[in-house]
Amino acid sequence: MRYLAGIWRLAIAALCFIGTSPAWHAVSLWAFLMYQIGFIAGIVMLWSGCASILRGVQPPALLRGFVLTYAFSLAAVHFFVTPAAEFGVPAQQVIPLSAQVLALIVVGMLAVDFFAFEPHRAFKPVYPLVWLVYLPLYAAFAIARAYWFPHSGPTANAYPYDYLIITQFTWGGAGVACLKIVAIYLAVGVVLCLFDRALPAKSAAE
């Protein structure tokens, strides 16, 4: 089973790199959170896939949980809360799939990997709060980048998401949007931890 797990994880890594390939041609696309998380997920799954096949050291639980939390949360936010500006980027030519379809495939494959191949009972209760740290760091980066480089893309005003535009900032609108997003990321992290505690410690890939 470890070979199957390894191949599965390498396939996820390949799809992540394919999905982020437009950003290698247009650097401004890295301002989108989806491209950042997609690339990080690709690195983690490449590491995990090679470790499964070669019996190496797997990525730490904190990093694996971070990738899962952000992948699932991004899907929830973009499909149910606010449209994803990233999905307007033309699909690459290697696999003729839209960004939405490719994102759904990766999220689905990550879910299968979590339930079928990952070891469990490794997430600590504090992890969901630790995973949230990336959100304010990303917001600060996106706002500072757009403020100092207003013509750098990937959008007309350089802000990757409308709720980050400080020139249109209102405490009510921005506060509600940010609370919704933080609540989703925190809820997904907590649910992941609950599943992690409920599932068997030993994975099928071991």
UniProtKB/TrEMBL annotation:
| Keywords, in A-Z order | Membrane, Transmembrane, Transmembrane helix
This protein's superkingdom?
Bacteria
TM helices/strands, residue ranges: 33-54, 61-81, 93-117, 129-149, 169-195
Q: What is this protein called?
A: Permeases of the major facilitator superfamily
